[in-house]
Amino acid sequence: MGILILWKEENMNLYAGKVLMIDLSSGKISVEPLRTEWVREYWGCWGLGLRYYCDMVQPDIEPLAPENPIVFMTGPFCGTMVPLTSRFSMISKSPYTGTIYEANTGGAFGPELKFAGYDGFIVKGKADRPVFLKIEDDRVSLESAEAVSGRGIFATEEFLKEAVGSPEAKTLAIGPAGENCIGYSCIGSEAYRQFGRAGAGALLGSKNLKGVVCRGTGGVRVADVTTFLEKVRQYEEENIYTDDNLWANTDGTPVLVDLTNDLGIHPTRNYRFGVNEHKDALNSDAIKKAKVSARACTSCPLACGKFTHINGAEVEGPEYETLCLSGSNCGMNDLEQVIRFNRLCDDLGLDTMTGGSVIALAMDLTESGRHDFNLKFGESGEYLKVVEEIAMLSTERGRELAMGSKKLAEKYHAEDMAAEVKGLEVPAYEPRGNYGMGIAYATSERGACHLRAFPVDSPDRFDIEIMAKEVADSQNFNAIKWSMCICDFWGSVSHEIMADLLSVGLGEPVTAEELTVAGERIWNITRLFNLGAGFTAADDILPKKMMEQPLGNGPAEGRVFLKDDFDRALKIYYSARGWDEQGVPKAEKLVELGLDQIRI
Ligand code: SF4
């Protein structure tokens, strides 16, 4: 099916210089030169992928329609020796929230794609039967995936590696949840890494694309390799092996279990409480006892991934978000059961954050007598059983939970119990105990998200004015950081460091100032897209329960984020962004960012 031999060409510094275009309807595969005119404004991953995506669609596009493209994009450092830079992004419109949607994953697929000679690939159309995309350097083809139709991600990834006859090949795959187009299905990569949250799996599933396998044997060129490697070594020693980042190696994200409990912002029992009194069963010490080995993404010396094993249950993880939202928030204080839950989700292709939140809501609905889902806080049997029911849509209960919190709450008139923003479930940092996180969730472009701004331990967390401005700055910074494919756990990376490495790698000067502007530009494009998709200022809001129901225990006990305070925060935030009172970027802001001529 559609094999194409592509030509080799000299690649650019830090970029491969080519993007693969895949039309699944016709089976046509082609290669296009990288749109270099966009590189200095959008750089890579999120930003560059977003620019490609917005050039191809109108915001009212139906997410699961064949014509909706999915853009996969690496960044300039991906595949180089710069540590913690192996992430790559997927950009499309979310079938779960209807917003613009970026997700990124670590692991090893991004660098492998660069080694094969591509900065990214763009998929559109729909295959008439399940297929996978095979990339082996300049040999690219679509092949039948019918043999693994309906199978889990782990088996599918093995099948994909066998298809290229190389254990070195890197893979992306969806499980039954993606094939069934469930709104919170993931794309898995290398077994335990995911493009998660808002329906990446469904996007692939809607196109009958079961997976992608890539084997690349090239490299990434830099302008001045000696200086580049010296800089890499210098930043590694001075900026990565520091206390700011070493927790990722020693503890990984489970270290946050104790921190968030100490702050009283650890969602527990469907976001009723801010402290889990049984948190020791799920904290970093518990994970260390169950740890059997570690794993790193390509080019990462921190190796934050922890393989855990208890009584035959094993997984890479669980990460903090899973420990909290699938553990504490479900009253599940048994690490072995959380590991089992995590592994099931990873194999079937469900997001553990949303999965945990939806199940917690169903437990709350059951225990409060509003509707009996036969799910109770802390009871593991049905908690594990329902995961497959959701992914397979095999029972009425599974089909209802597959709708997600927003629709489930609407169905049972329980909007007061749900914790979502723009349809995406609230992450594991309670906004009643940190107003900055509340502002971050309400204004995130893809719904409640902790990866856009993260003022978790700020001493000013209840100062609305400081938080509103800090969230806007962080969102801009993270937009460019994600566009460089830099992992979140390089906590001390700066515009200056990125600019320095880019200058040496590209062989042309790059300034911190232009990267600052690029971050703000990227954030504003997401806003323009969402406005075009029908979102308004009214959607920049927190769940009712966080504005009206006092938090149940801990240091933030009794707190709410009052609507009046929230409205004031939003006003300050819009003003800091140069947006009007309706959250629309003002004309002068668009001119300043070079966005006044852009068609979205
Ligand atoms: S810190 Fe963890 S997630 Fe980040 S690049 Fe390293 S191994 Fe990957």
Mean pLDDT: 96
The helix count comes to: 23
Q: Please report which band the strand proportion falls in: under 5%, 5-15%, 15-25%, 25-35%, 35-45% or over 45%.
A: 5-15%
Q: Any idea what the CATH architecture of the largest domain is? A: 4-Layer Sandwich
Overview of this protein structure:
With 600 residues, the protein is an alpha+beta fold. It is built from 23 helices and 18 strands. Helix 2 (45-56) packs across helix 18 (464-483), helix 18 packs across helix 20 (512-532) and helix 19 (495-506) packs across helix 20 (512-532). The protein is globular and about 60 Å long. Iron/sulfur cluster is lined by residues 84, 106, 248, 296-297, 300, 302-305, 487, 489.
Question: Which descriptors would you attach to this protein?
Answer:
600 residues, alpha+beta, Aldehyde Ferredoxin Oxidoreductase,  A, domain 1, Aldehyde Ferredoxin Oxidoreductase Protein, subunit A, domain 2, Aldehyde Ferredoxin Oxidoreductase Protein, subunit A, domain 3, 3 domains, seven-stranded mixed β-sheet, six-stranded mixed β-sheet, 23 helices, 14% strand, globular, disordered N terminus, binds iron/sulfur cluster
Summarize this, please?
The protein is α+β, with helices and mostly antiparallel strands and 600 residues long. It contains 23 helices and 18 strands.
List the helices and strands and how they pair.
Blueprint: E1 4-5, E2 18-23, E3 28-33, H1 36-42, H2 45-56, E4 70-73, E5 88-93, E6 100-105, H3 109-116, E7 120-124, E8 131-136, E9 139-144, H4 153-164, E10 170-173, H5 176-179, E11 187-189, E12 193-195, H6 200-205, E13 209-215, H7 225-240, H8 243-250, H9 255-263, H10 284-290, E14 291-295, E15 305-310, E16 313-316, H11 320-327, H12 335-348, H13 352-367, H14 380-392, H15 396-401, H16 405-411, E17 420-421, E18 424-425, H17 435-443, H18 464-483, H19 495-506, H20 512-532, H21 544-548, H22 563-577, H23 587-592
Parallel strand pairs: 2-7, 8-13
Antiparallel strand pairs: 1-9, 2-3, 4-5, 4-7, 5-6, 8-9, 10-11, 10-13, 11-12, 14-15, 15-16, 17-18
Helix pairs in contact: 1-2, 2-18, 2-20, 7-19, 11-12, 11-13, 12-14, 17-18, 17-22, 18-20, 18-22, 19-20
The structure holds iron/sulfur cluster.
